[in-house]
Amino acid sequence: MKLKEAKVGQVYNFEYEQPFSGETTRYLAKVVGVRKLDQSEISRIEASSRYRMYDSDFARTSTLITCQMPNGQFRTFYGERTKACRRLFFGGLVFALGIARFFAE
Q1: Strand boundaries in 44-93, DSSP class E
Q2: Which CATH number does the domain housing residue 78 bear?
Q3: pTM of the full predicted structure?
Q4: CA–CA gap between residue 66 and residue 68 (Å, rounded)
Q5: How many Å apart are CA 70 and CA 67, to the nearest integer?
Q6: How far apart are CA 62 and CA 74, in angstroms?
Q7: Which range marks the domain in which residue 22 is found?
Q8: What is the pLDDT of residues 62-103, one digit of tens each?
Q9: 101 phi/psi in degrees, rounded to 5
Q10: How far is 79 from 34, CA to CA, in rounded Å?
Q11: Taking 60 as the threshold, does the pLDDT of residue 105 lie above it?
Q12: β-pairing verdict for 74-78 and 24-36
């Protein structure tokens, strides 16, 4: 499963690949938003962003997933850059009780 198939309100554990280095980091996160970008939106972002603007191998993907992290902060991931993604059965409870930080890095 990829995070791009995530449902709002569910908690997932996944590895996210950084596009520049190829390194992966494991995350525990609660999905709070899913946004599908069309090609015109992707083109607009690419035109206004300096991030890897001269890298012809870099490509943005179409699914943005906004997550709440165990420390309460929010982060957005490209859903297609995940692997080893698993929904946690009791993940919502872990976040509701405020103990998610004990299960994350």
Answers
A1: 63-68, 74-78, 82-87
A2: 2.30.30.520
A3: 0.80
A4: 7
A5: 10
A6: 19
A7: 3-34+64-103
A8: 899 999 998 889 999 999 989 999 998 777 777 777 777 776
A9: -60, -20
A10: 9
A11: no
A12: unpaired
